[in-house]
Amino acid sequence: MGISLNNNRRVRNETLEHLLSPFETTFKYCGADYRSFYAFYGTESEYPISDLEKSVQDYLNFIDNL
């Protein structure tokens, strides 16, 4: 699961892990192989292209290691 967020790593004082826990529970209930998530922070501000390129590579590595 890939997620894009603003610069804040918390949403309404909740961690992303906590907010996504119903997805994890549902995956496990259905017998699916839940593999966590990749989060990209900083989507509400101008992001340096070099940092964006690194994030793309990090996301591809995340996918390769699923």
From TrEMBL:
Name this protein carries in UniProt: NAD(P)H-dependent oxidoreductase
Stored Gene3D superfamilies: 3.40.50.360
